[in-house]
Amino acid sequence: MGVYVRAVATGEEVELNADRPFQMASVFKIPILAELLSETHAGRRPLDNRIILTDQMKAPGSGVLKELSAGTPLTVRDLATLMIIVSDNTATDILLGLVTKEAVNSRLRACGLERTTVAMSCRELLWDLVGLGGAPDTPENRQVAAGRLKRRELDPNSRVYRDERANTTTPREMAVLLGHVLRPTLNGGSASGPLAPDVCRQMLDILRRQQIRDRLPLLLAPAVDIAHKTGSVSRVSNDAGILYAPKSPCVVTVFTRDLADDLKGRMAIAQVGQAVYEAYA
After folding, report:
1. What's the rounded Cα separation, in Å, for the pair 246 and 268?
2. What is the pLDDT tens value at each position of the chain, 281 positions in all?
3. How far apart are CA 49 and CA 42, in angstroms?
4. Do the Cβ atoms of 37 and 277 come closer than 8 Å?
5. Which of 39, 108, 139, 261 suits a disulfide with 44, CB 3.0-4.6 Å?
6. In whole angstroms, what is the distance from residue 242 CA to residue 227 CA?
7. CB-based burial of residue 90 (10 Å sphere; 0-12 exposed, 13-18 middle, 19+ buried)?
8. Under 8 Å CB-to-CB from 216, ≥6 apart: which residues?
């Protein structure tokens, strides 16, 4: 487990393996959101633009869009919301295709993150996980990938687990990014930084609507305010966000790897969330 906690009001920090690399899983959707909304703020990516869903766009794994009919119209805003609050992989890959990996990584560098890299889309990551890395995108391979994922026939030597350039981060670096998101929304929103205050407010609005609550907020009352994004693949469970405890907002990032029991991993993350909240209640 890797943990980084920073209480904004006091500057207190807690860290455990905070500089060790971890697979982000779906936490990599936070950097995509940051780049997308930054492009929107710059006038290059209107959120009301419509995209027509096609079967070719559909990605395996989490989400609802893969179950919808081709021809369904979706706004960029819809896609951004689904990417975060239900971790929709199809929405993610559509948006990543719009903004590009290069732009997301440039945004990360501008935010001071040197060891966080987005190198794979959801489809690329999951296909590699089931031994289809580099295979052509055909209907037949899609069926094979879906079947292997359903049966959990996963490659333990996949680069998802061993390649530090394959969508990895450190607990400290993800906390740095979340700190950039939080800071302009405090003290009247006048703080300057690599992300515009309007971008940060929009990001927090979406992150606060997260519907997957089986990690950091699991042991907390439903009314507790938290803006966060989970991430999971087999043997990996993560959560990263901002926990608004009564005495201080707290940036909390928790990543795991090599889990023997995914459920116990999620519960360990929940215990971190509970401990942080109680410390600042």
Report:
1. 22
2. 999 999 999 999 999 999 999 999 999 999 999 999 999 999 999 999 999 999 999 999 999 999 999 999 999 999 999 999 999 999 999 999 999 999 999 999 999 999 999 999 999 999 999 999 999 999 999 999 999 999 999 999 999 998 988 999 999 999 999 999 999 998 766 566 899 999 999 999 999 999 999 999 999 999 999 999 999 999 999 999 999 999 999 999 999 999 999 999 999 999 999 999 999 99
3. 15
4. no
5. 39
6. 5
7. buried
8. 226, 228, 239, 241, 243, 252, 254, 269, 270, 272, 273
DSSP the chain: -EEEEEETTT--EEEESTTS-EE-GGGGHHHHHHHHHHHHHTTSS-TT-EEE--GGG--SSS-SGGGSPTT-EEEHHHHHHHHHHS--HHHHHHHHHHH-HHHHHHHHHHTT-SS-B----HHHHHHHHTT-TT----HHHHHHHHHHHHHT---TT-HHHH-TTSSEE-HHHHHHHHHHHHGGGSGGG----SS-HHHHHHHHHHHTT----SSTTTTS-TTS-EEEEEEEETTEEEEEEEEE-SS-EEEEEEE--S-S-HHHHHHHHHHHHHHHHHHT-
Can you read off the two tokens belonging to residue 20?
A: 């060790």
Tell me if the pTM is above 0.70.
yes
Written as one letter, the residue type at 21 is: P
Domain ranges of the chain: 2-279
